[in-house]
C-alpha cells in the first residue's frame, strides 16, 4: 500500500473508532461505572468493528487483518507473558510489605461465592488460579478480540510500515491509552490513585504492551497471540492478583493494578528486550 493510501486508511480507521466508541463512552460515563452490563463489551468491540468497516470500504485483503492462526508457540507465549510479568510485579509488592497476599477476607468471600469449602489458602489459590486460566481467560478473549482486530490487526501493521517498528509501536500504544482516557478521567476505571499518577502509569503499561504485541503480530502474522495476551492480562490481573492483594497502607493503590507503578515497570523492562527483536524483525520484513 502506498504512503497516501496508508495515511487515508489510518485516518479512516481512527475516525470510525472514535465515532463508534463515543456512544459507549457517553453511556458508561453517564452511568459512572465501568464494570457490569453490556456497555463495556460493546465498547471493546468498537475498534474491531471500525477495522472491519475500513477493510470493507477500502477493499483490503482479508489477510491484512491477521485473522489466521499464528501458531501454537506464539499463542502460548501470549498466554503466559501476563502471568509472568504480573507475578514479578506483585511479588515485589508483597515482599516489600506494600500489599498482603492472599487477603484472607477476599479468599473467604471468593470461596463462598463459588461454593468452595476448602479451608487451605494454598489449595484455594491453586484451584482459583487454574479456574481463571481455564475459564476466565477464554471468556475475556471474546471482548479482547474485538479490540485486537483493530489495534493489532489493522492499525499496527500500517503504523509500522509507515513509521518503523519503534515509532509505529509507540504511536499505537499512545492511541490505545488515549482511547481509555474518557473512562479513566470521567468514570471509575481506576483503583483509587489520582489522575496525575494513574495516567503516566497506564500509558507506560499500554506503550510497553503495544511494543510486545507489535512484535507478536509481526512474527506470527496473526492477531491471535495478541488477543490471547490481552485476555490473559485482563483475567489474571483483574481477577486474581489485584482483588487478592490486601492494602497495607495508603501506598498500596500506588503500586498495584494497571494504575500503580509495579506492573507497568516490569512490562516496560520486558518491552525493552522485545523492542530489539521487533526492530530486527521489522528490518527483515522490509
Strand order of the largest sheet: 1-2
Mean pLDDT: 94
Indicate the proportion of strand residues. Answer: under 5%
Global Rg: 19 Å
Structural class: mainly alpha
Helix content: over 70%
Q: Which consecutive residue ranges, at least 5 long each, have pLDDT under 50?
A: none
Distance between the termini: 13 Å
Strand tally, please?
2
Count every helix, treating DSSP H or I runs of 4 or more residues as helices. Answer: 8
Which shape, going by the Cα principal axes? globular
Order of helices and strands: HHHEHHHHEH
Largest sheet: 2 strands, antiparallel
Could you explain how this protein is built, in words?
By secondary structure, the protein is mostly helical. Helices cover 76% and strands 1% of the residues. The chain has eight helices and two strands; from the N terminus they run αααβααααβα. It has helices at 3-31, 39-58, 72-95, 104-114, 121-186, 195-220, 224-241, 262-285; strands at 99-100, 246-247. Helix 3 runs antiparallel to helix 8 (262-285), helix 5 (121-186) crosses helix 7 (224-241) and helix 5 (121-186) packs across helix 8 (262-285).
What's this, in brief?
The chain is built from eight helices and two strands; from the N terminus they run αααβααααβα.
Features:
two-stranded antiparallel ribbon, single chain, 286 residues, mainly alpha, 2 strands
Question: How do the strands and helices of this protein lay out in sequence?
Answer:
Layout: H1 3-31, H2 39-58, H3 72-95, E1 99-100, H4 104-114, H5 121-186, H6 195-220, H7 224-241, E2 246-247, H8 262-285
Antiparallel strand pairs: 1-2
Helix pairs in contact: 1-2, 1-5, 2-5, 3-7, 3-8, 5-6, 5-7, 5-8, 6-7, 6-8
Amino acid at each position: 500500500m502506498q504512503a497516501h493510501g496508508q495515511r487515508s486508511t489510518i485516518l479512516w480507521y481512527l475516525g470510525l473508532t472514535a465515532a463508534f466508541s463515543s456512544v459507549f463512552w457517553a453511556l458508561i460515563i453517564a452511568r459512572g461505572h465501568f464494570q457490569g452490563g453490556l456497555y463495556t463489551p460493546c465498547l471493546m468491540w468498537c475498534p474491531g468493528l471500525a477495522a472491519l468497516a475500513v477493510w470493507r470500504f477500502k477493499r483490503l485483503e482479508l489477510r491484512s487483518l491477521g485473522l489466521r492462526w499464528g501458531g501454537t508457540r506464539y499463542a502460548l507465549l501470549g498466554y503466559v507473558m501476563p502471568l509472568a510479568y504480573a507475578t514479578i510485579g506483585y511479588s515485589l509488592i508483597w515482599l516489600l510489605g506494600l500489599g498482603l497476599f492472599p487477603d484472607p477476607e477476599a479468599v473467604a468471600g471468593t470461596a463462598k461465592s463459588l461454593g468452595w469449602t476448602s479451608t487451605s489458602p494454598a489449595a484455594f489459590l491453586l484451584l482459583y488460579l487454574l479456574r481463571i486460566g481455564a475459564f476466565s481467560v477464554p471468556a475475556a478473549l471474546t471482548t479482547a478480540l474485538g479490540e485486537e482486530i483493530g489495534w493489532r490487526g489493522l492499525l499496527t501493521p500500517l503504523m509500522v510500515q509507515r513509521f518503523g517498528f519503534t515509532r509505529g509501536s509507540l504511536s499505537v500504544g499512545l492511541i490505545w491509552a488515549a482511547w481509555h482516557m474518557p473512562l479513566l478521567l470521567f468514570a471509575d476505571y481506576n483503583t483509587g490513585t489520582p489522575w496525575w499518577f494513574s495516567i503516566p502509569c497506564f500509558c507506560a503499561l499500554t506503550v510497553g504492551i503495544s511494543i510486545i504485541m507489535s512484535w507478536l503480530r509481526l512474527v506470527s502474522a496473526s492477531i491471535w497471540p495478541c488477543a490471547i495476551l490481552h485476555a490473559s492480562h485482563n483475567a489474571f490481573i483483574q481477577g486474581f492478583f489485584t482483588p487478592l492483594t490486601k492494602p497495607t497502607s495508603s501506598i498500596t493503590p500506588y503500586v498495584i493494578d494497571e494504575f500503580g507503578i509495579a506492573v507497568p515497570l516490569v512490562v516496560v523492562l520486558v518491552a525493552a528486550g522485545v523492542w530489539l527483536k521487533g526492530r530486527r524483525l521489522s528490518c527483515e520484513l522490509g
